[in-house]
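[audit] Reproducing an earlier prediction to check determinism. Same input, same settings, fresh worker. If the tokens differ from the archived copy the diff job will pick it up downstream; this log only records the rerun itself.
[audit] input (110 residues):
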Amino acid sequence: MGQLNMFYHFDVEQDFMYKANTFIQQLNRMSELDAELVHLIHHEMKDDRGQIINKTNEAIEQYQKNNQSHSDMYKNSMHTAAWRYTYMINDMRGQNITLYYDVVTREKKR
């Protein structure tokens, strides 16, 4: 008796990575708005001098770096979550099966 083990797909595999894109687009938009705000503040304070201005600029730049860091982390998290979701859903669309069979041989008539 022969045996064949295989994974049977009940449905075609799907890619759910697009589910992360909406969130990532919002993060990108927030980063753009953050950069615009920083540019506007720097533009308004370009002619000003002093310790307070310097500290303000440093704080703004640090704030923007932190925001970018968090944005990158969330983008990575969303990609990972979408990949895991895709894997789980596609894994549930199939099942391991074992087929048992007998080999039947026929003799040729002459």
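[audit] rerun output stored. Observation attached for the diff report: The mean pLDDT is 90.
[audit] end
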